[in-house]
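Thread title: Can someone regenerate the structure for this chain?

I was given the following input by a collaborator and told the matching structure tokens would be attached. They weren't. Posting the sequence so someone can regenerate them.
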Amino acid sequence: MKKNKIQLLLFSLLLIFIGFLREYLFVSINLRIQQIYYNSNENVNLIPDWIQYISHLNYSELLILKWVLTFIFIVAFWLVAILIFKKFSFDKKDIKLFSIVLVTLLIASLLFYWIGDSLFNKEYFGYKIARSITGFLQSPLPILIYIAFVYSIKKQSKH
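Best answer:
Regenerated them for you:
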């Protein structure tokens, strides 16, 4: 029992680390995008030394980097979720359902982005919705919600 608590704590710390790393990177990239967009050198020193390479990227390269990092962090949270589910003996069907839900949400996000851009010729319309969905997917929230869902279903089936 004590071993499970320690492992749960370590998984929690890993999720927190990934979340803070993601936030730190995106804030730094957004700061650099802001500097380029407004042609400003304001806040130049706020970008940490270990990611100074982003200072050499242009506007479109930074946007592409954000999309790549978005995908990487979605995958990172998904992989940690799979590890947690396997460690705490979730059924294979539960793990598969979680993965299907994540992929479905990711596809929905891409569709909203495409629909807003293509059909309404308003990229920002679809972007807001897509950004909200991908923001959710790049957090521990899907994992926490799914754990609560699975445990409540299992608890109900025992009664």
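The two ends are 25 Å apart (CA to CA).
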